[in-house]
Amino acid sequence: MEEKKDINKVPGENKEPQAIVFQEKDSKIGPIIGSIIIIFIIAIGGIYFWSTQIEKINTEIMESDNEEGFIEDVNQIDAELEAIDFEAIDSDLQAIDEEFSNL
Is the domain of 72 the same as that of 94? Predict the structure, then answer.
């Protein structure tokens, strides 16, 4: 019986191929980089959420501020100003002036 020759084998090499084993290095930079990436993603998500909430609030404010509401507010402020008794304030200020001038 004739032996089959393996054409892929290098002459003089009778050993079986061995797996290459890599030694693991104790590196602490991997978890740090992973943590930084996770914190960065959470920060980006928080900024996005915050900006959408501000946009929502601004939209609600703009919708509630219509022209009629503004006119009503101005009329209400004008009515309150007319209701204030400025003569009483003037007499109070004169009394304060007299007290300081007597010192």
Answer: yes
